[in-house]
Structure formats: C-alpha cells, structure tokens
From TrEMBL:
One of its GO terms (cellular component) is DNA polymerase III complex. It catalyses: DNA(n) + a 2'-deoxyribonucleoside 5'-triphosphate = DNA(n+1) + diphosphate. Residues 385-419 are annotated as: Disordered. GO terms for biological process: DNA-templated DNA replication. This is DNA-directed DNA polymerase. Its EC number is 2.7.7.7. It is an enzyme of class 2 (transferase). Keywords: ATP-binding, DNA replication, DNA-directed DNA polymerase, Metal-binding, Nucleotide-binding, Nucleotidyltransferase, Transferase, Zinc. SUPFAM superfamilies: P-loop containing nucleoside triphosphate hydrolases, post-AAA+ oligomerization domain-like. The lineage of its organism: Bacteria, Bacillati, Bacillota, Tissierellia, Tissierellales. Belongs to the DnaX/STICHEL family.
Length: 539
C-alpha cells in the first residue's frame, strides 16, 4: 500500500473531529437535524483550517441514511463510498485548473442529472476565487436557482476576490485560525496513535510555526517523523524548520542591547554558516521582540505567550533592558526587512543592513537616559558646573597686504590644496597607523554603525591629506555603504576631530589602485627613494 500523508490519514470524519471550528460545526449539524439545508455555502479562511474537510463531512451527512445528531454515521453504504471517494453524488472541482467559461458550462450541464444514490448531489468547488470574471458571470444564474437536489459548497482562502453577487447568494462561514493549544493536543493524540514519543515543548514549537493551520502542523510533524526513530527531538524540529534556537536569539538580542556591532555581526555569521535561512531568522526575531513587547506591556503575559516558565523569565530579563520605544522601533525595522526579503536578490545583505538599523534603534531614548543621568549627577553634587565667564578678547593679526594679494591671485583649487597640505603637515601615515585602533574606538563612540563598516577596512597610504582605506573583495557592501556622501563626510569629521587635523578619506577595493597619481607625485616618490643629487630629469 502506498504511503499516505498524516494529514490525510487523520482527516476529520465527523463534525466532532473538526478542531477549533465549533461555531460552524454546531450550525451545520443543526441544519442537518432540522432538515433546513441551504442550496449554497461559502467557506472562507486561511489554509489548513478545515474548510474542505467540513465540506466533505457535510456532503456525507446530508446523504447519510442513518445520521447521528447531525453527524454522518460513516458506516452506511453511502458514507463508505464517500470515504473511498467513489461516490459520484459528491463532486470535487478545483477552480484553479477549471476556471474557464467552458468548465462552468460543463458544470451547468451535469447538474441536470439527479443524484444516483443519495438525496443530494453536492458540488465542492475549491479555491473558487480563481475563477475568471466570465466564469463567475456564467456561474451566477446556476448558483441562484439550482435544482432542488443540488448543493454548492464554495471554499476559498481569499473571499475578497469573489464578486459580491456570488457572495450574497451563499451562506457564509468564516473558518478561524486554530489555537496553538488545540493544535498541540491534536498532535499529541496522533503521536500516541502512531506510538511516537514527543515532548510537549516540541509540539508547542510545531504549533507556533503552523500559524494556526492544522494541516501545516501535521505536515511538519510528518516531516520530522520521517527522520526520527520513534522519538521526536526538539533539535530535530528546529533543524527541519530552519529556525534559530532560543539560545541563538538570546545572544543576538544581548548584542543589540549592548549595541555591540562586531559581536552581532559575528553571531549572524556563525548562525548563517550553521545553515539557518536569513528570512527565517528575521521572522524568529520578530516573534522574539513581539514577546518582549507583550511582557513589557502587562502582567498577564504568561497567559498570552505559549512558552515555558524558564523561557518567559529569560524574555522578561531582556525586555527590562529595553524601553518600549526601542522595542517598537526594532519591530518596525524587522517587519520592513521581512517585506523586503521577498524580493531581495541577496538576503544576507538585507539581514546585515537590518542588524545595523537595530543597533541604532531607540537612540533618542538612549540620549534621554544619558541626559537624565547627567542631571541627577549635577543635582547630587557629583559634578560641579562652572559659571559662564566672558571670553577674553584676542587681538586678530591682519596679514600683510602683499600676502593677501598673493592668496587672492591663487585659484580656489590651489588654496584648498595648500590648506590640505598645511593641515596634514604634522600628521604622518605612521602616526595614523599607531593610533588607528584607538581612532576606531572613538568612531564607535560617535557612530556605531560607521564603526561596523570602517573596522573591516585596511589603511593603505596617506598622501596630500588623503587617507586611502582598502576593503577586501568580501566587503564590497561595506565599501559601498561607507562611501555614501553622508557617511563619508561623517567619517572625515570624526577622524579630523580625533587626529586634530583635517583629513579626506578615499575608499577602494583590493583590485583598485586608488586615484591616479600625477607625474609630480611620482617624481616626489623617486626623490624620496634615490635623493635629488642622483636625479636627472629629461624631457
């Protein structure tokens, strides 16, 4: 016998088996008991919540010869034929592949033939929103006045795409998302029947990732059952889902709290190398930050979040280190990244940009905290504030007229070049090399995002006040980001402030040689190497 997926093997056979849709089951059962059956139904809701299963149960129940309180008996000839999918009175149509006017015409012809065995001929039209406009128009009259023995059950995940003229002719039932608790209980029951051992936290993990869809949960369960040996491990489910473990998410959040760019990028690198998907990691982080918001917002978070006590305690510790504004900023940044990921050709770059934004999130909040701390220190007398004094007047010496005339005769470019040479006169390349590690720390204090980019660069040379910084081939993104006008200007200002000398920075890749050097620069290099005494210049 061929293998049958778990969600098909354990498909509900009665309304009692339909999980999480009691508000619909009760109405449909009462209609069958009172023989008050409509001619058209519209079942809508997200995937995997029981729309098609409910349609099949209802089709079987209206034709059952011995219904039990509105449920099919599943023992009579008609029920058994329906369960074997051999009953011709129940017709399933996939609207995604039968969406033309010609298909609807065939349907209109077939309804003229009465049921062969049961009381009703039931047409289940799945994904009905896929019908073309012409097909909907052709279907309209048939749906409005079908023969008395015909019942239409339309199922869709996108009700908004169905014309209002169709919707108004049906009884509408909205299938809601199934709670994680109900999904976990149903999976525990199935695992017991399959003689499979599994922890409750593993079932909760699967339930959370199913997003309220029972079929999705059973598909994940089916996948991990195939690799387990009678026992499903928590780590196996994480591996199957491509999700990051709780420990990984905790460490990422810790780096964001401390605004430690180097550590955060290192953890992202190791997480991606371990096989985790960038898009999945963004989703996991959204879920974690959402949990922190809920914990931060109220005292009843233990009832809302479906997590073990020890996990909730860890979330509480992290949420205490964030302000609500910063948490909300982080969720906005991650949500924007999730939307961008769908169209990104290089998701890794999107993930890294998102990480940089997370480090800067809530800077206003951090600034306010620093100001409050400073004010408290002033009030407590830990810091003495000196009174403002009038600055001493200083005599400004006017350069001789001849010098001013000489400067006036020079072009702006010559003046700028001269100023650059003067400003960098006392600063050598070796000076910058010796101080570079400290300079990077200064950049980190001023703007942490720039430090995350600049730290991957390598100093190459200093000439005429231009500091050349080179990036390896793997850091093309860093080079492109830092040489944007506003970032480049910020780097120059911070370095100038640190070295007390104006600097212009130039960023290149390994395979680039930087700006072309003119003959004068090359000649100067030769003079420095061989000396001017041994040098003879010929045209």
């Amino acid at each position: 016998m061929s293998y049958k997926a778990i969600y098909r093997r354990f498909r509900p056979k009665s309304f009692e088996d339909l999980i999480g849709q009691e508000h619909i089951s009760t109405i449909l059962k009462n209609q069958i008991k009172t023989d008050n059956i409509a001619h058209a139904y519209l079942f809508s809701g997200i995937r995997g919540t029981g729309k098609t299963s409910a349609a099949k149960i209802f089709a079987r129940a209206v034709n059952c010869t011995s219904p039990i309180e509105g449920d099919p008996c599943n023992k009579c000839e008609i029920c058994l034929a329906s369960l074997d999918e051999s009953l011709m009175d129940i017709v399933e149509i996939d609207a995604a592949s039968n969406n033309k006017v010609e298909d609807i015409r065939e349907l209109r012809e077939s309804i003229n033939y009465p049921p062969s065995k049961g009381r009703y001929k039931v047409y289940i039209v799945d994904e009905v929103h896929m019908l073309s406009t012409s097909a909907f128009n052709a279907f309209l009259k048939t749906l409005e006045e079908p023969p008395s023995y015909v019942i239409f059950i339309l199922a869709t995940t996108e009700q908004q795409k169905i014309p209002a003229t169709i919707v108004s002719r049906c009884q509408r039932y909205e299938f809601k998302r199934i709670s994680s608790e109900d999904i976990s209980k149903n999976m525990a029951k199935i695992c017991s029947e399959l003689d499979i051992s599994v922890e409750s936290r593993t079932l909760r993990l699967i339930a959370r990732n199913s997003e309220g869809a029972m079929r999705d949960a059973l598909s994940i369960l089916d996948q991990v059952v195939a690799i387990s040996d009678g026992k499903i491990e928590y780590e196996e489910v994480l591996e199957s889902l491509g999700s990051a473990s709780g420990e990984v998410l905790l460490s990422l959040v810790d780096s964001i709290v401390e605004r430690d760019a180097a550590e955060l990028f290192g953890k992202i690198e190791s997480t991606i190398k371990s096989g985790k998907d960038s898009t999945r990691l963004i989703k996991d982080m959204i879920s974690y930050f959402r949990s922190m918001v809920i914990v931060k917002a109220g005292s009843n978070y233990r009832e809302i979040l479906d997590e073990p006590e020890e996990v909730l305690d860890e979330i509480k510790k992290r949420s205490d280190k964030f302000g609500m504004d910063r948490l909300m900023d982080c969720i906005d940044i991650l949500s924007e990244a999730e939307a961008t990921m769908k169209y990104a050709t290089q998701p890794r770059i999107t993930l890294e940009i998102t990480a940089m934004k997370l480090l800067e999130a809530g800077e206003r909040e951090a600034m306010i905290a620093r100001i409050e701390k400073l004010e408290n220190m002033i009030k407590s007398g830990k810091i003495e504030v000196s009174k403002a004094t009038r600055p001493e007047s200083r005599e400004t010496k006017v350069p001789p007229k001849e010098v001013r005339r000489e400067e006036k005769s020079q072009s702006p470019d010559e003046i700028g070049k001269k100023e650059a040479e003067l400003s960098s006169k006392e600063l050598s390349f070796n000076d910058i090399l010796d101080e570079w590690s400290e300079a990077l720390k200064y950049v980190k204090k001023k703007k942490i995002a720039l430090h995350a980019l600049l730290v991957e660069g390598k100093l190459v040379k200093l000439k005429n006040g231009v500091l050349t910084i080179q990036f390896g081939d793997q850091f093309g993104f860093h080079k492109d980001a830092i040489e944007k006008e506003h970032n480049k200007r910020a780097v120059e200002e911070i370095l100038a402030d640190y070295f007390k000398s104006s600097l212009t920075v130039n960023f290149i890749m390994e395979d680039e040689s930087g700006p072309e050097e003119d003959e004068e620069d090359l000649l100067q290099d030769v003079v420095e190497i061989f000396g001017s005494e041994k040098l003879k210049v010929e045209d």
